[in-house]
Specification:
Layout: E1 6-12, H1 19-33, E2 38-44, H2 56-63, E3 68-69, E4 75-84, E5 98-108, H3 124-132, E6 137-140, H4 143-146, H5 169-173, E7 187-190, H6 199-202, E8 209-213, H7 215-221, E9 229-233, H8 239-244, E10 248-250, H9 264-271, E11 275-278, H10 283-286, E12 291-292, H11 296-304, H12 307-324, H13 327-338, E13 357-363, H14 370-379, E14 386-392, E15 407-409, H15 420-438, E16 442-446, H16 452-460, E17 465-469, E18 491-495, E19 515-517, H17 531-538, E20 546-550, H18 560-571, E21 577-581, E22 596-599, E23 613-616, H19 620-628, E24 633-635, H20 646-656, E25 659-661, H21 670-677, H22 680-691, H23 699-710, E26 713-714, H24 722-725
Parallel strand pairs: 1-2, 1-4, 2-3, 2-26, 4-5, 5-6, 7-8, 7-10, 8-9, 10-11, 11-12, 13-14, 13-16, 14-15, 16-17, 17-18, 18-19, 20-21, 20-23, 21-22, 23-24, 24-25
Helix pairs in contact: 1-13, 14-23, 15-16, 18-21
Length: about 725
């Protein structure tokens, strides 16, 4: 199926962050504002790629039908293909591009992009022309980068066009430049690390200064900071908001640093009416938007006392912005290349249809069904164009077929006492065969430790996208080596925990590097039975109170002594019906007495309205389901060392008022806790507290992230550090 013709196709990696994303987005918005019909082709590049997925802005623009998301395996015709980052297509891709454009333009967005490195690297333009099957024009994002291009002069001259960062100067500046400086000016700068704190910044040690950067890393590397300095974390607010808050911005970029030269902070501050101060060496590249000085503190002081000078400086800066960076400049360049837009309307009647592809879901067993349930929750929310298939170590994997998905079973080596090396070799072969047979575009793993076989499969199939879904709240120090293997994956998804405030585990510090989403649940509220229907399905009396015991498989944690004391306390609640869920992967019959009704079926959450309260182990899935559905619960942690931090969840529930925590050592609390939760008024207050912690279901967001990868072009290279990270063991 041929994709409709478009004016412009932007080929870019929309997983990038910071100045790179800002550059891409502004170019796209300038083209849309000019009336051009725009499509994007996502290419998952390796260099600097975030493992947090495609940027939400692009998803929103596709959903609003402002931008077309191209099928990477389909065909498209365009007046212009615009490759943002000429090194993006420098290696072999997972599939050939079906894009034909009248003009192909590639923009170099960072210094050193064309260097050959160790001599084995191909010229990016040669590779681009091979991928696009047409000649490619190389451009530069800045004057500084243009100076590096072949045939250029040291001052940035030459024949290569310059596509500077685009900005809507009128919209960004609002009503015009800021009011004249009065009192202490608000001065700021952006840094990536302590190493960038050069003498220019330390000249402000006795003054107020705002630094924007990785706050935790900065505080860790340097113990003592000047009293007047304030550090703002990059995640706290967008760069544009930070720049709007400043009277003056200190540009610390060094031309020889080999980093990107987009100077986003300077451009954004200048556009908002602030003053930019830069070293004299940047004067040829900042083009009039900055005041150059080796003594920025003195320059700011002088301007603060010279209102007329401030006005002249801002007028000069605004003229330079309009000449070099305004959207009108970008539109003029587009018009020169491809003429006017082919059609006035930029909205589409419907998104482009995508061909059917597959996603392979691979999960470990664990001691419950959490891994498999999370994968089912994601799989059933994938778009119709993606068919899920499953490979699982869970003995309950047959439940997958009830949702209409094919599934295959393979046991974990500990289940049959197998040798780990033999098991990894078998699993490597099995994964290879599954991939060869089902031809999935993406493999999604849910588990706490990516096995050696996964690394082997990644090497065998570099053209496939690999995703790791891992819930947090690990025990302190637990599985820390597993985090090294995140380099294996193109995307890491962490469904957040309500109790994340008590998270002391190793994944906590990694959350800024991965795609964090709200808690994942299998069912939506509208899929739940009402009380009468649920009670009838379970053989309970809807007019009598009922409790559900959800104490897990108990395969690795003995709760019998606690249960022996729990049942008499429950029997003391007038008319209470006691039911327990028989875990599908439980390895033993726990011998429940006759007055306890043993229930089976999956998912039990569908019938949760039949129960007035619950006694449960706070595993990830059961904890978040019970809170989401407003079920008052006594949480009994499974405190086996291999488990995630159940105690933290139980403690959080008790602190927030929607649950009680009852540890195995706290048998003395059983009678008063059951007496309290047996009272309707107490349960009503607990349900109200649970509603205050309601969150959207993150399963749909995870499915979107998987779909983004399925419909992306992927480089065939592997992360350079996988080899050194592969260790002995699983």
């Amino acid at each position: 199926m041929r994709t409709p013709n478009v004016d412009i196709v932007m080929i870019a990696d929309w997983r990038q962050a910071g100045p790179v994303f800002w550059y891409q987005r502004n170019l796209a918005e300038a083209a849309l504002a000019a009336g051009y019909r725009l499509a994007v082709l996502q290419v998952d590049g390796r260099r600097g790629a975030a493992r947090a997925g495609v940027h939400p802005w692009l998803r929103a623009m596709v959903d609003r039908q402002r931008i077309i998301r191209l099928d990477p395996a389909g065909e498209a015709e365009a007046a212009l293909s615009l490759t943002v980052d000429d090194t993006l297509l420098e290696g072999e891709l997972s599939r050939p591009l079906g894009l034909i454009a009248d003009v192909n333009l590639a923009i170099r967005i960072a210094q050193g992009g064309g260097e050959a490195g160790d001599g084995a690297r191909s010229d990016p333009i040669d590779m681009l022309e091979m991928q696009l099957r047409r000649p490619v024009v190389l451009a530069a994002a800045t004057d500084l980068i243009a100076a590096e291009l072949p045939g250029s002069t040291p001052a940035g001259g030459g024949d290569a066009p310059i596509w500077r960062p685009a900005i809507d100067v009128d919209a960004f500046g609002g009503e015009g430049p800021q009011a004249p400086l009065s009192g202490p000016p608000v001065v700021g700068s952006c840094v990536d690390g302590v190493g960038e704190l050069d003498s220019r910044l330390f000249g402000w040690r006795h003054r107020a200064l705002r630094l924007r950067g990785p706050k935790a890393a900065l505080l860790e590397r340097r113990q003592a900071w000047p009293a007047g300095w304030r550090i703002e974390d990059v995640a706290d607010r967008p760069l544009s908001d930070f720049c709007r808050s400043l009277h003056a911005y200190l540009e610390g970029f060094a031309p020889k640093s080999g980093k990107d030269a987009l100077c986003a902070g300077s451009i954004l501050t200048a556009a908002s009416g602030g003053l930019v101060l830069a070293p004299p060496g940047l004067e040829p590249y900042l083009g009039g938007i900055a005041t150059t000085s080796d003594a920025p503190a003195a320059a700011v002081d002088a301007l603060a006392e010279d209102a007329a000078g401030q006005r002249r400086s801002r007028e000069k800066v605004r003229a330079a912005l309009l000449e070099r960076h305004d959207w009108r400049c970008h539109r003029a360049r587009l018009s020169e290349l491809i003429g006017a837009p082919r059609q006035a309307a930029v909205s589409l009647a419907s998104p482009s249809a995508m061909p059917r592809r597959r996603a392979l879901f691979f999960s470990t067993n664990g001691v419950g069904m959490g891994h498999l349930t999370r994968q089912l929750a994601i799989a059933r929310r994938l778009p119709a164009s993606i068919e899920p298939v499953f490979l699982s170590m869970s003995q309950a994997c047959g439940q997958v077929e009830k949702f209409g998905f094919p599934v295959e079973y393979t046991p974990y080596h500990a289940y049959y006492d197998g040798h780990v090396d033999h098991w990894n070799a078998h699993l490597t072969h099995l994964l290879h065969e599954m991939i060869a047979f089902y031809d999935p575009a993406v493999l999604m793993f849910d588990g706490n430790y990516p096995f050696r076989a996964l690394i082997n499969a990644r090497r065998q199939h570099p053209e496939r996208a690999f995703v790791w879904c891992r819930r947090g709240l690990w025990q302190p120090g637990q599985n820390a080596a597993a985090l090294d293997r995140a380099a294996l994956f193109d995307l890491v998804i962490e469904p957040l925990d309500l109790a994340t405030v008590f998270d002391r585990g190793p994944t906590k510090s990694e959350q800024g590097k991965v795609r964090c989403i709200p808690p994942i649940r299998l069912l939506e509220p509208e899929e739940l039975d009402d009380r009468e229907t649920a009670a009838a399905a379970l053989g309970l009396d809807a007019d009598k109170p009922a409790v559900l015991l959800q104490l897990g498989s108990r395969n690795n944690y003995e709760l019998a002594p606690l249960v022996d004391r729990l049942l008499p306390a429950l029997r003391a609640v007038d008319g209470l019906q006691i039911a327990t869920m028989q875990w599908l992967i439980s390895e033993q019959d726990h011998g429940w007495p006759d007055d306890v009704q043993v229930l089976s079926g999956y998912p039990m959450a569908r019938h949760i309205a039949a129960f007035d309260f619950s006694i449960a182990t706070p595993g990830y899935n059961s904890f978040h389901e019970l809170v989401a559905y407003g079920v008052p619960t006594v949480f009994i942690p499974n405190e086996h060392p291999s488990m995630d931090d159940h105690v933290a969840r139980a403690h959080f529930a008790e602190r927030q008022g929607f649950g009680f925590g009852l540890r195995r050592s706290e048998v003395y609390k059983i009678a008063p806790v059951i007496e309290a939760i047996g009272q309707p008024g107490v349960r009503a207050r607990m349900r109200a507290a649970a509603r205050r912690h309601a969150t959207p279901n993150g399963a749909g967001l995870a499915a979107r992230a998987v779909a983004d990868l399925v419909h992306s072009v992927k480089g065939r290279g592997e992360p350079a550090d996988i080899g050194r990270r592969q260790k002995a063991g699983t």
